[in-house]
Amino acid sequence: LYPRDPYRSGYTFRSWGTPVIGEDGNITITARWRAIPDGDDDDNRPTGGNTGGGTTTIPDTQTPLDPGTTIIDQEVPLAGAVGLNDADHFAYVIGYEDGTVRPLNNISRAEVATIFFRLMTDEYRAANWSTVNDFTDVSAGGWYNNAISTCASAGALKGRGDGTKFDPNAPITRGEFAVIAARFLDESHVDDGKGDFADTADHWAAREIRLAAKAGWITGSGSKFRPDEPITRAEVMTIVNRMLDRTPDRDHMLSEMKRWTDNPEDAWYYEAVQEATNEHAYERDEALVEMWTELLPSRDWKALETEWASGGSTADPAAE
Q1: What backbone torsions phi and psi does residue 290 show, to the nearest 5 degrees?
Q2: Which residues have C-beta within 8 Å of that of residue 317, sequence separation ≥ 6?
Q3: What is the pTM of this model?
């Protein structure tokens, strides 16, 4: 048992590795750390401005939880999410034509649905495929209709209020995103009602926030999670990478990868954004560090969705 994102003086916690069960039945899990360069305190990142307007959403930090609020695991968390592709590291976020990826912008509910729709395994997507839904504000002609309909069919999405509306263009909150993420956990993750953040105990999403935190997918700032604040694109990419056990390391990426003018190398979200926006093959070394071995052609999501709708198999990305 251990608290989320453990603290180690002089180092930044990166992630937990995949649990390994030994012959004696003991479980070993490796913590990945990075030394903090002199003069750089990763736990005190500048907040900066929010390119999406409004106040900046403070990123998930590596600050240890307040001593009075410790998130404790019931068991070693499993990184893989049910129904999601955690083997192929394809680009699930697409940047903008002006060369930006806008990591500090808010992300909409429809955009989140689209990300999870893309991340589904072919089998899971086919089993839950739908082009219809019960939401009065998600029409058949909407660009997000298929993604929302399929995710709703899979039980990952529900409407707001009385459930009749989805509000696709509204910013999604941190609590709402945690709920969607938790719905991809398998049944082995059982809520014991313990381990709330200081600001989530009485929240409507308290159960799912606890589950997602104990799975190692979400963290807070100090003892708070800020469930009702909008979540940023960078925060979503960080959490999704954790869900899929994607562990990007800037020292093991490729120089010819796609880069973004608003994703500087000294940003806390730099590695997460590069991982989410570059299609790549990879290997892991003995310490479970992810090493990129080859950049792959980005998938044509529009063409793939057309093919999925026709019942065809997934196209080979290299042929696109």
Answers
A1: -80, 125
A2: 90, 279, 296, 297, 298, 299
A3: 0.75
